[in-house]
Specification:
By secondary structure, this protein is of the alpha/beta class. The chain has 16 helices and eleven strands.
Length: 437
């Protein structure tokens, strides 16, 4: 096997909703209330129910030189078009040798937290927006290129009855992935241990819908201080989901739902072996007074059976697959965010996996995803030969992947001075930049 023979599926990318996304899918009687883009001082702003949402791309810096990653795009003309146009996204995927992609929302936040907040004031409006996002994503984004996008949905999680209706509606359309907060208690919803979620677990189990929990959707990576180099926060960000991973691992509902699956999206895998060792030690050492009961199994057994771990560039984790379950490890590209290695995913990935067996490489690059997400990539694309890095890159050979300089965007007033002073950019610098939006 060589690099060109790999088939790569990513289960963590992001779609930027185009300006008309919600308007086209709102009920006609309420279309004037749909989220829409307005221009303010040269910036594109989402406006919804008199609320402004100014970060249209949320770190969508793909295609820029790395020296410009610190600038936050504030208008659509500052974005690479593949971020919001699904046909051009496929071009970028071809150039990157990536066959298929699961895309999280942007405007609603990765797990629909914006809709959850709106529901506290106007639940019917929040429900309309949730349904509209799902319809745009399935009917436009995914339908534009069958076999290239794994459909995902959001649910109106503040209302269990409506959640089950929407999950059923999406399941009937072939959706097998839902985005969900890694810690719903942190966004004003019941914790995952509350019986409120029991019908949701059952529905996902019965319909084989994977629950995808992206970093930052509940538990958050905290800035150590406003003076801390931003590198410290970026470094610790993926591991911030470890707290939630422990919460899910020790939850009691798994024993009732053997087909239930969740993914730790953008969490990385290098920390997982120690985490599992610690979980097993905790159970062995403390279960006599904590009364946790894994039915004779260990916490690590449950994790390996139910929880999908995902990685972008994690050579250490791949060297320690024996301490995980290689059937529950998957690749993620993170296009269009700053951690993506687009358009060089095959080169980075091959450097990490080329010491593994072909069977293992196939599992973690695509087979695990095809199985768990009920995604027939080969059937939808006319056979494996049409899915490889080599074939896709031939299709994308004319795509311009050269860095695009000086696209503009938000930056702190002092960013130029910081560069001249050669001091580290701090958490406070970035917080002030977003506050200026």
């Amino acid at each position: 096997m060589n690099m060109e023979d790999m088939v790569i599926i990513s289960i963590d990318d992001h779609a930027i909703e185009p300006p008309e996304a919600f308007i086209r899918h709102y009920p006609e009687a309420h279309r004037d209330r749909a989220p829409r883009i307005v221009k303010e001082n040269g910036k594109d702003i989402w406006l919804w129910n008199d609320q402004r949402f100014p970060t249209i791309g949320l770190n969508a810096v793909v295609g820029r030189p790395r020296s410009e990653y610190g600038m936050e795009p504030s208008a659509f003309d500052q974005l690479r078009p593949g971020t919001y146009d699904p046909r051009l996204r496929v071009d970028d995927m071809n150039a990157n040798g990536v066959l298929a992609s699961l895309n999280f929302p942007t405007m609603p936040s990765f797990a629909g937290g914006v809709f959850v907040a709106m529901a506290k004031k106007d639940p019917e409006e929040a429900l309309r927006a949730c349904r509209a996002w799902n319809d745009w994503h399935v009917q436009e984004w995914c339908a534009s290129a069958p076999g290239r996008f794994i459909p995902m949905c959001l649910v109106p999680s503040w209302d269990m009855g409506e959640t089950l209706k929407e999950l059923k509606r999406m399941s009937d359309l072939g959706v097998h992935a839902v985005s969900f907060s890694d810690n719903p208690a942190n966004i004003g919803l019941p914790s995952i241990h509350n019986e409120y979620w029991e019908p949701f677990w059952k529905a996902c189990n019965d319909s084989r819908i994977v629950i995808n929990c992206h970093i930052g959707t509940g538990a958050r990576a905290l800035h150590p201080s406003s003076e801390s180099p931003i590198d410290a926060w970026i470094t610790a960000m993926p591991i911030s989901i470890a707290n939630s991973a422990a919460d899910w691992t020790f939850a009691t509902f798994w024993k009732r739902y053997p087909e239930l699956r969740m993914a730790l999206s953008e969490g990385g895998i290098g920390w997982v072996p120690y985490f599992l060792e610690r979980a097993d030690f905790t159970h062995e050492h403390h279960h006599e007074w904590t009364f946790t009961d894994f039915g004779g199994e260990r916490p690590s057994d449950l994790f390996k059976r139910h929880i999908i771990s995902c990685f972008i560039d994690d050579q250490f984790g791949l060297k320690n697959l024996e301490y995980m379950n290689e059937d529950m490890v998957a690749y993620e590209c993170d296009y269009p965010h700053s951690d993506t290695v687009w358009p060089n995913v095959p080169e980075y990935l091959w450097a990490s996996v080329n010491g593994l067996t072909k069977d293992t490489i196939d599992k973690i690059t695509h087979l695990n995803v095809m199985r768990e997400y009920s995604f027939d990539a080969f059937g939808l694309n006319g056979g494996r030969e049409n899915c490889t890095v080599g074939h896709l890159r031939e299709l994308g050979k004319d795509v311009d992947v050269s860095p695009r300089h000086n696209l503009g965007g938000l930056k702190t007033d002092s960013m130029d001075a910081i560069g001249k002073a050669r001091r580290p950019v701090t958490s406070g610098d970035i917080e002030r930049m977003f506050a200026s939006a």
